Amino acid sequence: MLADWLIPFEKKATYNEKFTQIDGESVDTQMMHMVKNLNYITTESWHAVSLDYVGNKIAMAFVLPHENNNFSEFETSFSQDDYENLVRNLNGTNIDLTLPKFKLEWGSKSLMQSLNSLGMKKVFIGDANHFPKLLEQNGEPLTQSLWIDNVYHQCKVIVDEKGTEAAAATSISVSIESAPTDPENPIEFKVDRPAMFFIYQKSTGALLFIGRLTKL
To answer: Is-contact 154 111, C-beta < 8 A?
Structure first.
């Protein structure tokens, strides 16, 4: 996925500031900034901002626990109900947004152990043709063995002033508080500490990508 923000950040508003990583270490990074009317939601334990992409069909939401809340505990407790509340109850609000430019990559991780634990075991055993319809001749399965040797997964997300590049490849009940819009006193939403993020389809809420920003 390669998409531009509906409201891009101005490069001249990007500046260097500290980001506190999950281990407590602070690092210098480039922070993008804007004050705009954006989709926002706040609950008792977290708040979130959603940025639309050009075309207004896909959006990216950043979710922050409130100050002094432990990120690991928040991440563990964030549920499907929380996600559904997020995408269904966003409201246009004047936001003073600070967001780091970042690039995250997960390099070729084997999924064999995870798939085995989910019950997918037989296809990794090289003792037979486990995919007969993939290896046949004249409508009849061949006798050669065909199995999966391994499965690898690789992901990357790049966020900058223009938009987002996100790619993934695999080879083989809280109460909601709606914040009023106040152009004179925008709500500060500053991603200078660990956060979760979601890329989703606006019309259905279908989740396209999920990630965590814990270090830069």
So the answer is: no
